[in-house]
Amino acid sequence: MESDPSQIKLAYRGASEVRINDAGQLEVSTPVESFQEDKPYAYQEVEGQRLEGEASEGVQCGFRVSDYDPQKVLVLDPVVLLYAGYIGGSFQDQGQGIAVDSTGSAYVTGWTLSTETTFPVMVGPDLTPNGGRLFGFGGDAFVAKIGVALPLLEIELSQESYVNGETVTATTFRLANPTSAPVAVELKLWIGTPIPGLEALSIFNLGADGSFVLPAGMDLELGPFPLFPVSADLPRGTYEFSSRMLHPVTGELLSEDLNPFAIQ
Fold this sequence. Notes:
single chain, mainly beta
């Protein structure tokens, strides 16, 4: 029996559009949001060696495969593991819910009967373990975050509000790429004002053409970063000093840091 990948079809119910983006991914748009399926990996085992081929998904949600031997098994593996994590301790634990934010980080809620040493806590309103018991009351609720390593621009302002004579300052202005490979990004940095009809003031917008690349393992702290002094002629109200980092090809949001502050 000959292998024929053209017989394989994928269906996305509820999708409003399916297309191949510039990165070779299958991009699926729905009325809620869009997501991407990574370019599939195809290979054949021939005489103990793995021969890799090129595979791409078409707009009909099928596959086109480069030269291959139809008399041998053809492996198409469009599923790619983006990240994984382990949550649990020495005793009984159970997840009750999961959600994913715009950066791809997963948030898991549930309860645990494990000890504090095997199910450590990092931050939260209540860091005191209640002690698990299998029967009756006891145990602890938890919210755990499993994050994806993504480049970021992290900003932290010195104050939440400023008055005349003070300087609006970013005490933290950190640019980092925690991944093991260089990453091209589009970086936007702006100041929003309370002035009606005035658009946000762009400080810079770099890398829309893919030319702004963060080296692998980069972690650069540029703070403190003074922005401007507060004077009597500045309008009072809520301002914003914020950043957004995007994939220059797909437009995928990689990182966002929104920092409102008041001038009184």
